[in-house]
Amino acid sequence: MTSRRSPGAGGHSPSELRSEPGSSAPTLLRALVIERHWQKFTTFERQFLRAARELADQAGEPELAKVTVSSRQFERWYAGNVKTEPYPDACRILEFMFGHPVARLLAPARPGAGVVSGLLGSEDAASLTQWLTASSVGDEAVAGVDRAVCRLADAHGLAAPVLVLAEARQVQAGVQAMLRGGRLRHRQARELLRIDGSLLAHVGLLLSDLGDDAAGEEYANAALLYLGEAGAAEPPAWYVLAKIARWRHQYARAADLAARGLEHAGPGPMAVQLACYEANASALAGDPARARAAMGRAEDAAAALPPGDMTLSPWSFPAERMAMFRLSVALGTGDPGGALAVAAAADPGLAPGRPRNPAALAQIRIGAAIAHLATGDLDGAAEQVAPVLELPPEFRIATVTGWLAGLDGRLAASRHATSPAAAGLRQQIRQFTTTPEPTESEQG
Fold first, then answer.
1. Which of 24 and 149 is assigned the larger pLDDT?
2. Which end of the chain is more exposed for a tag (fewer CB within 10 A), N or C?
């Protein structure tokens, strides 16, 4: 470590011994570095400096942000060629990064250590108490991954899904390492299961956005299992399952899945979202009575939400998402005029005061285009959809292309089907939907 030379800076402590050639078994730190693909010094250094800044902000200790790491120190840590711990500040940063005490990180990795293994051999109250109060994972590390998962959720609507997915996979590997490799208190295990369940649901949603519904469904079902084991709220996982069923055109099943999720939802954005999904899927299934009843529940739940408390997290429910569902239900229940009124009120061309989700706004515009077409206004439809066709490839998620496919089908079946304007618009839609999306491998 290099940086400040005062006590607590990076580097070796004065008492640290020289590295040992031919060190023993690989350390936990080495295993975690390999798992996260941080073997290059420049990659590790970037992660270390980011962790130092985040810990400095969280702890209110600006001096932590000045701690750095040298390539020589990284090589010694990676090889396991150290006999004593680094300076305290460096230890804190490493623990923040990996969720394990430094002594554990620099010790040989041991497979199979978990929460239940600590109970084996506990035959009296004293040993059980010792087990319950012992932990190799700091509460600060658990809180750190929770914040990372929340930040990823807040980035959902603003960053390219493939990039958010790559980061989510990395964070999930860290959470899994903490669950499997550390000695946890019961409350820490429950909290990590809750965090991992939320993250699994988010990964499932991202995979669905990128067109991999089968993998998305697997992750959502795993999320249900983790959240249930943690005794945590399950609605995010039910929402992902309902969304996947809807875009597989299993409308009745989607409505039922959303309704099941609503049974587990307390007051809040997820209650609004699930009620909206039940309404939308019911309308698409040809059940307008159920659609209107569910939309009424959604409106009531939305009215109870605190104003100005929305983010772009998929578990939040900002105004543009509510507009999107109102519009969809209006279209599904045969009310194109109502759909146009919703789109006009949403005013997707203006975004004062806060960021907006480009994919959600695109779906509002496509819905407005479908409503214009239903009233016989081809020019209005083309005007609404024109900005959508300029959406960057990284935001052309499955829901956007699905909406455009619906518009294309309606163009083909409309009285304008043989007009040059309709043919030109359909050609633009085909070009848009066939542009390849970036994959995880293309994004590195």
1. 149
2. C
